[in-house]
Amino acid sequence: MKALLVIDVQNGIVSCGDYKEELFLMEQVIKDFKESNCPVIFVQHVDDAEESPLKRGSIGSEIHSSLKDYSDFIIEKQTPSSFFQTELTQTLEKLGVDHLFIIGFETEFCCMFTAIAAYDRGYNVTFIKDATGTTNTAESYSMQGLDVKQFVGTVLRWSSVIEVVNYTEYTEKYK
Question: Which residues form the Isochorismatase-like domain (predicted)?
Fold first, then answer.
């Protein structure tokens, strides 16, 4: 069975930029999974630090209103990996999931770490790179011309173990 992980689509992240295109693609993928009766699992990053935009219990930590009604499950995490010290593995086992599709925010951290951790746990993994977003830019990394999503997609594709597709490829293959 396949399942969709929607990672860190939270107010404190979405409010940092213009993510209309990414949110649109995320919603399209989510709708596909809902129509196929496949689980949609939201992963919510929460911090205990007072100054964090994702502070536990704050408006910033809440799932963004445009997508929150689609969730079948919400898993809380406190690290980039959605698997580390969370209930995700148990939830996936109960559901009989063997193929994870990954979309969401912080492409180069939470989405990539989760994709690698999922592969390490024996899941087939499909990473839909243009249905991810990040608050970081080339300037964040002092790397002129860096396209974070393209870079992460290339690195994961080079691994030859994680399938990386864009939305068009996803719809051609899985819809």
Answer: 3-157
Other C-beta atoms within 10 Å of 109: how many?
A: 20
Q: Which residue type is seen at 169?
A: E
Strand-pairing partners, residue 126, are 101, 163
Q: Indicate the domain borders of the chain.
A: 2-174
- For residue 95, the surrounding DSSP H or E stretch is helix 88-95
What is 2-174's CATH number?
3.40.50.850
pLDDT in tens, 14-59: 999 999 999 999 999 999 999 999 999 999 999 998 889 999 999 9
Give per-residue pLDDT as tens, 137-165: 656 666 677 677 787 888 888 889 999 99
Contact status, residue 107 vs residue 80, Cβ threshold 8 Å: no
Q: Give the burial class of 41: count Cβ atoms within 10 A of its Cβ; 0-12 exposed, 13-18 middle, 19 or more buried.
A: buried
Structure tokens at 48: 């205990």
Element housing 166 (H / E): none
Dihedral through CA 76, CA 79, CA 80, CA 85, nearest 10?
Answer: -60
